[in-house]
Amino acid sequence: MLVARGARLVQADHIAHELMQPGQAVYEEVVRHFGRAILNPDGSVNRPKLAEAAFSPDPTGATRIGELNAIVHPAVIGREDEWMEAEGRRDPHGIAIVEAALILEAGAADRFDRLIVVTCSEDQRVQRFAQRLKIDVEAARREVVRRMAAQFPDSVKIRRADFVIDNSGSLDNTEAQVDKTYATLKQEAEQKPA
Fold it and tell me: What is the pLDDT of residues 119-155, one digit of tens each?
């Protein structure tokens, strides 16, 4: 919705996917740490297998998500920074948005002028995840719970946010929140020195 209003967007997940392609340094490091069992026959990373290796607790209850994040986050943040610098040169008064689930968890929030948190209920997350991946609701619930365990709770994210968009209501309601947020961002961007 923000892009439709004129903002530019880069998605951390897409950057991470690019960095985990065979031949990339991040790919090599992930395979070194997690083994070849996370690979598809063609050598590409099997994301569900990697997620299982990273999120599944060992007998002590510890997971390896921190290990994975320590490999991937710095490289993703580096690419985001390059993109933001290029966008700033292209349009000094533009709005550049980095979409990422783990901005706070990665300690990266201070890199941004503003933080927008989009939220909805856990049941809505589960339903939307199930629909998007075309999986049953219980499988979606397990995955959402597992992923959310690696993130700060919404209450923490909301306290740190400059803007909160509650995506649990109607599409019209969400659009109205986006309009208000975008108008503020645009006004702030136009007031910044070039």
Answer: 999 999 999 999 998 999 999 998 888 888 878 999 9
Q: 86-103 burial, b if ≥16 CB within 10 A, otherwise e?
A: ebeeeeeeebbbbebebb
| Global pTM exceeds 0.90 | no
DSSP string, 78-144: HHHHHHHHHHHHH-TT--EEEE-TTTTTTT-GGGSS--EEEE--HHHHHHHHHHHHT--HHHHHHHH
Q: Compute the average pLDDT of residues 12-30.
A: 96
Number of folded domains that form the chain: 1
Q: What is the CATH number of the domain that holds 15?
A: 3.40.50.300
Joined tokens for residue 29:
């490091």
How far, CA to CA in Å, does 68 sit from each of 50, 57, 63, 100?
9, 14, 10, 16
Distance (Å, whole) CA 20 – CA 79 = 13
Q: Which whole number is the average pLDDT over 6-29? A: 96
User: CB neighbours (10 Å) of residue 38?
Assistant: 21
pLDDT, position 111: 92
Domain of 107, in residue numbers: 3-191
